[in-house]
Structure prediction request, 493 residues.
Amino acid sequence: MIENPVLKGFNPDPSICYADGCYYIAVSTFEYVPGVAVYESTNLVQWTYCTSILTEPEHLDLAGCNNSSGIYAPTLRFHAGRFYLVTTNKHKKSNFLMTSTSIKGPWSKPMHICETGIDPSLFFDEDGRCFYTSNGMFNGKKGIHGAYLDCSTGTLLEPMQLLTAGVTGCATEAPHIYFRNQWYYLLIAEGGTEYGHHCQVFRSKNLQGPYEEHASAPILSHVHRKGHPIQATGHADLFCTPDGQWFAVFLGVRVFGKALLHNLGRETFLAPVSWIDDWPIIGSQGHVELSYPLLYDTSRQRPELLVDFSRPLAEYPLLKVRLPKSDCYVQIEGNLLLCGEDELGTSLGNPTLLALRQTSFRSTFTCRLSLTDLQGKAGLVAWYNSDYHCKLVVQRISDDCLHISLVRHIHDMEAATNSLLLRCEGTEVTLSCTTDTTSYQFFVGDTLIGSASIASFCSETTMYMSFTGTLLGIFAEQGKATFLSSMSLIDHD
Prediction:
């Protein structure tokens, strides 16, 4: 079975390609480092973290980047033995292209294409030419535009021309072009990446149009399916398997309760595509489900992700914020030393934070903190962004006493909602956080320190439009701390 979402947790704006027997999905990363995470699968069911593409400081300038700015929707393509990535650094107002002969690099330096628009995409025609599309305003016209591109330099070979103004005129974005049965298909998303999100499709016999609109309902939409656990479906990318089956990857959110709250972020889903009268339809009349049968012999993925500090951190889907300093993350004899400078709530700061995406509503995150060299503050954090997080803080106040506090940061307010003193009874403490659909609960050993409402980590309760999801991780502030051996995240759903 395909069990949705195929990429759980904060993994939005998926783009997929196939190369040498493997499928690769690239997703947005916004203000986080490294940029553009890539996952791989040989069977469309078992997906594992593969690599990240924007790994070098010269590839990714996020200094002063706002929350939910930074790296927007990527498109990943494979053509004639080479991978192509095109994406947007919204913070720097740059759409750029990178290429590589291997998914794991080395990747070329970013080649700037233009400043206008977001959601860039590439299409390689049968004659080998590369066609670039994005949304935006060009020559006074708003919508989806396109032009031929020199994919060796990132240079547009002609002015951008309007392909379609869309259907609703509301957040017309996420263009991708495909060719099938002598038709060019232009897939777009509209309605904004919230509960009005959906996908439309157009087609033309000519790559540069004019494109005609599909006459029936959107080809992907849960706008009128409010009781379903999957909502806000959109931003899709179609692909055809080697045996001729068509599928789509797309983003959506899993909601709980009548308030339609979601805290895991926009996730990546997968569904079959049917062709009816030479028009594509995703799922069943645009509706998609949590599972689909697939003719492969597969087993479920392991519910635990263990980050072993004796192995390179680049092997894991770990995230840092904005401009992390390499000397603040030091692996020593199988442990991880964090050196903290900025506090987590510093506006546009660069906190020493290392986190995993929360991938299910019910989960347990665990780490071990050494007390022998603890300086300043350190601990565990449930992190939505610098304006919304809850941290379990450990401080040494004497040789035999620790101060433990639960500090919540919401909007422009920060407060320690729970605190206590603990005697040091050894050289380490185990910190953990358990999650469910009501709260996050924070423990030192078996002692519950306090809890935070799940509403503190939901997009619907933020004071501005946010595009990310909750992370669980470790941090250090105003000092240094050693985390022992590993940290783990276990899914219980």
User: Anything to note?
Assistant: The mean pLDDT is 95. Residues 157 and 173 are 22 Å apart (CA to CA).
